Amino acid sequence: MRTAHYPRSRIVCHVGIGGFESAADRLLWTLDARAYIGRDELTKNHVAECHCGQVKITCRGEPYPVFMCNCTLCQRRTGSPVHIGAWWPMADVTIEGETKAFTRTTGEQGRPATFNFCPECGTSIWWGGQTEGDHPLVGYYGIAGGCFADPEFPPPTHSVFERTKHPWISAPQGTPCFAATFTDPAVMEEIRAKMRKPI
Question: What is the value of pTM for the model shown?
Answer without folding.
Answer: 0.75
